[in-house]
Specification:
heterodimer, A: 59 residues, alpha+beta, three-stranded antiparallel sheet, 20% helix, elongated, B: 136 residues, mainly beta, Elongation Factor Tu (Ef-tu), domain 3, nine-stranded antiparallel sheet, two-stranded antiparallel sheet
């Protein structure tokens, strides 16, 4: 499960929150989620636009 | 001559959340319980070390805005929390600016005070946990 930082109190907003390391240090991830400090990240990258060579203009 | 003057920049984090701008003071007491080991044939009491039972009290301003004091602490009451603090937020974890941590400290209560014309405050106490210091 990936998480993204929302609040600057936790880190740089937009950066990924290392939940595994945090949990290993005794950090309560559920409390951070409930408090609105981090959110679950879909962690999906935008797919590149498909190019269709058939539609390219013929020269 | 004073050698530790806390003018502006101590740092404190509760469960990875920095509450530096909401904290006005802290009191840390490292306690290792004394177990009496006095035996016959002695004229004074003697003790040996028992379990560690340190406490950290944080005096915080009571902000109920999002991502502030109340939002940080409300879900932690009755749970074990990791709390860290250092004399300065700049380059913590060094010999002259050590980072102290209580891992697994218990937050029993979230008391706060409200009064007309005054800033509300929350004085919370974390009890127990494993104490460690980073001062590389």
């Amino acid at each position: 499960m990936a998480y993204k930082i929302i609040s600057p109190r936790v880190g740089t907003p937009g950066d990924e929150f290392d939940a595994e390391a945090a949990e290993a240090n005794g950090i309560n991830i559920a409390a951070l989620l409930e408090g609105g400090f981090i959110e679950q990240s879909t962690n999906e990258t935008a797919k590149p636009a498909k190019t269709n060579s058939k539609n390219s203009a013929k020269e | 001559m004073p050698t530790s003057t806390y003018l502006s920049n101590p740092n404190v984090t509760v469960g990875a959340v920095s509450l530096q701008d909401q904290c006005q003071g802290l009191v840390f007491t490292r306690t290792i319980e004394a177990l009496e080991s006095t035996a016959f044939g002695t004229n004074s009491r003697s003790y040996v070390a028992g379990l560690e039972n340190s406490t950290l009290q944080l005096d915080l301003y009571a902000s109920f805005a999002s991502s502030e004091t109340y939002a940080t602490l409300k879900s932690l009451v009755g749970t074990q929390v990791t709390v860290s603090w250092s004399p300065s937020a700049t380059s913590p974890g060094t010999a002259t600016n050590p980072t102290m941590t209580l891992t697994g400290a218990y937050l029993e209560a979230l008391p706060y005070t409200m009064a007309m014309g005054a800033l509300g405050t929350m004085s919370v106490t974390f009890t127990g946990g494993v104490y460690s210091v980073v001062e590389v």
